Amino acid sequence: MLGQGSALAVQQQQMAQPDDPTLERSFRGHKDAVTSVAFNSNLKQLISGSLDNCVMVWNFKPQLRAFRFAGHKAAVYSVAFSPTHSLIASGSKDKSVRLWQPTVEGRSTILKAHTGTVRAVNFSQDGTSLITASDDKTAKVWSLPTQGFLFTLSGHSNWVRSAQISPDGRLAVTGSDDRTVKVWDLASRKVIRSYEGHGSAVNCVLFHPDGTCIASGSADGSLKLWDLRSDALLQHYGGSGAAAITGASWHPSGNFLLTSSLDTTVKVWDLREGQLFYTLRGHEGASLGVAFSPAGDYFASAGADEQVMGLAGSADAAVLEVPPPMNLEGVPESVAATLQHIVTQMDALVVAVGGMNSRLLTLEDRLDRLERQEPQAGQQQQQQQWQPLEAGMQQQQQRQQQ
């Protein structure tokens, strides 16, 4: 049973643990903000989409190079990887959806039916269907065996920014700029529930892994959980000046939710305890998308700083346990207050060190690029120095021949 959240709980700072999140790798190669990120089901690759019009496939093994897929004519806003097939989907401002083979050739099939920017793409859990969301105020469902259009879900009065199919394949959920979350019966193609409560556009919606509830994140900074069985609002976090939530991802256990936001942070929410579990700072700009790996032991974030960050250590359910409070029984009140203050300062220090570590990695990347450029510059300089000498030798040979 998910606990009830509270503003006080959200503000609580958690104690640092030995298994705090660690930056496994920072992926750089996009030439503009990275908008979306997704894991390959076998955890060998990470997929990202960007405002640079490209989709990139990153390999976790450093010796394997990344693939850059160019084909979209405008910004890519969403990417997804099929849970059952070797297939990538991407949605773009060019109004198209592309299905890519994650190979060196990067072959793709174009799906066209939307008349506006495609904001979201998501595969069904069985890999047989794809749902897409668009600025044309609709969501559309596609058949993957035939790669053909099936039907449209119409009912929103503004842009549709997010859409997902339920784990059992019977329902769909959509979030829109009209501030509503709508649940659809895919058999009848009709709205069966409509949730209101967000004060601004709904940027992301997603089913709980067991299909019993829905999470929605909004530009007003609020995160809400809706119970499909009782039609009640289960939990509410943020809002009232909080930074806009740009993306979200469930941990496979369903006990934790990962969110990205415009304030550069990535947050992990403990929904059993009803509180913010961890705040991660690493991007040098807005964080625009997040994803848990299929096993939950890794997660990744996409940033406006043109990088994808892959992290490990805290995403496993066994690790994401809230540490028990310190046993201060019998300790004088003044000493207990001092100890609590020290713990709080330690947590702040851990966050600061994590941010410094990310910046150091960024600096190392820049230094590596400079080191690669310097030899090239040296070779060019040597060539320039040799050119006059070679010219002089040629002139001397000509005079000797004469």
Question: Which terms summarize this structure?
Answer:
Anaphase-promoting complex subunit 4 WD40 domain-containing protein; four-stranded antiparallel β-sheet; WD40_repeat_dom_sf; 402 residues; disordered N terminus; WD40_repeat_CS; WD40_rpt; repeat; alpha+beta
Give a structural overview.
There is one protein chain. The chain has helices at 7-11, 333-401; strands at 22-28, 34-39, 45-50, 54-59, 67-70, 76-81, 88-92, 96-100, 108-112, 118-123, 129-134, 138-143, 148-154, 160-165, 171-176, 180-185, 190-196, 202-207, 213-218, 222-227, 233-238, 245-250, 256-261, 265-270, 275-281, 287-292, 298-303, 307-312. The protein has 402 residues and is α+β, with helices and mostly antiparallel strands.
Task: Please summarize what this structure is.
Keywords: Repeat, WD repeat. With 402 residues, the chain is of the alpha+beta class.
Order of helices and strands: HEEEEEEEEEEEEEEEEEEEEEEEEEEEEH
User: Unreliable segments (pLDDT under 50, ≥5 consecutive)?
Assistant: 1-18, 314-327, 350-355
Mean pLDDT across residues:
81
Radius of gyration, in angstroms, nearest whole number: 25 Å
Widest sheet: strand ordering: 1-28-27-26
Portion in strands: 35-45%
Taken from the alpha-carbon principal axes, the silhouette is: globular
Q: Helix segment count?
A: 2
For the secondary structure, the number of strands is 28
Q: Termini separation (Å)? A: 99 Å
The quaternary structure here is single chain
| Helix/sheet category | alpha+beta
The main β sheet shows up as: 4 strands, antiparallel
